[in-house]
Structure formats: C-alpha cells, structure tokens
Amino acid sequence: MHRLLTDKLVEWKDALTRKPLLVRGVHQCGKTFLLKEFGSKYYENVIYYDFKEDNRLFDLFELNHNPQRLIKDISLIFGIDIKPKKTLIIFDEIHSSKNALDALSHFSDDAPEFHIIAAGSNFDTVSPKIETLTLFPMNFYEFVAAQNSMLAEHLSESLFKEDTLKTFSQQLEVYFRDYQIVGGMPEVVKCWIDTGSIEEVDRLQSRIISGIENNFAKNAPHSMFPKLSAIWDAIPVQLSKDNRKFIFSRVKKSWRSKDLEDALFLLIRTGLVYKVSHIDKPDFPLSAYASNTHFKLYMCDVGLLRRTAKIPASVVLDTSSNFKDIKGAIIENIVCCELKRIFEDEIYYWSAENPGRAEVEFIIQDGSDIVPIAAKHTGISRTRSLLQYAVRFTPKKTVLTSLDKDKKDVLPLYAFWKLKEWLLLQ
Known about the structure:
With 426 residues, the chain is of the alpha/beta class. Helix content is 47%, strand content 16%. It has two domains: 5-134, P-loop containing nucleotide triphosphate hydrolases (Rossmann fold, 3-Layer(aba) Sandwich), CATH 3.40.50; 223-425, no CATH class.
C-alpha cells in the first residue's frame, strides 16, 4: 500500500545532512510495514529490531552511547556489515527503551553517515537532535490508491485540472462512502480489499479497539485506566450531539474536569484523540483566543469512531435525511483527521456568542491566512454560519466542503486531501 509519508522518507534519505529519524504514530497505523518496505526498496540491506519482541540490545544501549561502538556491536549481533548510507537500521517500539532513544541523539553529531529510523507511539519529549515525522492512519487518497493505483495517480496529478472531478465524481463518491465505514487503519483496509465484507471489517475494528484499550491497561497508571476508557467511549456519543462540544460531566456524573484532564492529556499526546478548541476571535496567534474549557474531541480514525459508537454500516449508506447528527460527526471526524495530517498543528472552531446561532466547524492557520472551514454532510444549504463569519471577520479565503460536486465554490469531501492546492487556486 502506497503511503504519502514515503516521499518524506526519501527526502530524509537523500538530504545532504540528516539526523536520526523518529516516526511516530498510533498503534497499528502501519509504521512497521512502511519502514520495512522503504528499507527494502531504497537500501542494499536492512537491520530490523523490535524492542518489545527482542531483548538482545537492551544491555548494549544501557552500557554504551558511543555511536561507533554501537554500530560495531550491532553489526556483530546481526551478522551484517553496516555500511554508511547503504544500510538502514530500524528500531521499532523504541519507546520501550529510554536508553536507546537517548543514544540516537549522539548519532546526529558523531556519526551522521549512518541511516537510522526509530518508530514508536508514546513519547513525552524528543531531543532536537532527532528528526520526527508522524504517520497517520490512511487518508482518503491512500484508501483509493490501495484499490485503484492508476486512478489515484491521475487524481494526484490533475485533480483540479480539466474535468477530472466531474468525470470521476461517481466513482469517488462510492469510495468515499466505503471510507466512512472502513476508515484508514491499514489492516482493516486490506481486509476490505480482500473480502469486501463489512462483517469482517467490523470484527477487525473491534479487535483493534480492544488492543487500544489493552494498551491503556499496560502503559497507563492503573488508576487512569477507567478514565481513559470512559473518555474514549464518550467521544462518539458527544460528537453525535447537536453542538458536538465535549462535556466532562457527561462522561460520568461523579467525575469533573479536574478528574479527567490527565487522562485526556495522555490520549491527545499519544495521537489517539484530536482536540479542537473553541476560539471567540480568529486572530494571531490563534492559541491566545482559545478556550481551555470549550472544545470538541475527535478520534484518530473514522472507522474506529464508527465502530466504537457501534454505528451500523447501513446508517452510513442511508441516503435519506435520517441520522443527520451522526452522519455529520463522521464527516467532521474525516475532515479533522485530514487537517491534522496536512498541517500537524492545532485546530480550532468558532461559534457566535449566542449559542446555536452560528458555528464554523474548523479554523486553521495557513501561512499568514486564518482560514474558516465549514464541513457538511449534504448539500450547501447550511452555509449561514460561514457567511456570518465572513461578514464579521472578512477572511481572505473560506472553504466549504461537502458532497456537492457541481459547485465551483465547494470543495468536494472526496477532494479535501488536496486542500493546500485548492487554497492556492482561491
């Protein structure tokens, strides 16, 4: 499966100067597969080591941080001659060894000729002598590419040229419907491609969710486990409400915000949950106008959101006006995930002072522009909020994304992954 992050890995490999690279990402988002595939394609040989499955190197990093000595010892242990620029060393689950992570920073100054990539999912801080990239669950483009590489390549090259969107709109709508059900966890996408069975998809998604909850139990303090699970389960429930705002007291009546803040911070830090804070004024810096108490929470993958909420695929497939709140939540979750991938920055939303009067789902900073983004499941009839925002704040650019395909001023949801290019055309 082609992953967009591959291009950034190639840039890192070919750079005149480089540091050891850390690839972050939530559990089962495809880090191991991507790095092994990258190594086999671009290097003469690869050394792969998993800190969770193998303990041979633990003592080595505990005793020694000298890069030259480490390279010599690793070469002897694996029986492979490690050649600068020609051998890729992959350290998987490196968060299991703080000594190994600390040792990587020494390679930046003392042995930059060796190519080392580490992978993991849970880090407090990372040395500035280590580069970082984030692998997200597969976005819609990668989902299409996994099934129709020729179409994906054509879309990548000419999505907004000629009549590409109009020509392929029907096919893209079908893929987008499927994506709302399947999501972007690579194993689930492969299951869908191989079987076409929603039952198998549901079963696998449930297993991944169980794995996430097991990780809560293994890696978090025992007292935090029930709070992590409670917040995770509450996200789709609260997103299905009309204003989608996350309210701590709705998680459990006896819990207040101060009881749950540490658990929420952990979910956000690990990348499982995205926080979108409310702002009352879209001005620089956006963070200065953000609320600490009014925010929405989204999951890192729309498929996991659907399955956690136990939303049957028939709801997504329903073309009537039924289930509009949960359909809207699904669309917003997809857009939020795409914004995190594109900008890897904080995301905000805006609403007018009077509750229920007007709300713009997302506000992002793109260079010197603050861009409001309205995300709608159907049609363009509900644009009053975006119009009210535009009258009030006169932004240079606005974005309305929906399933409309024949309106020049609407970015179709199945083309949202090209938002950056769309903004340049505005």
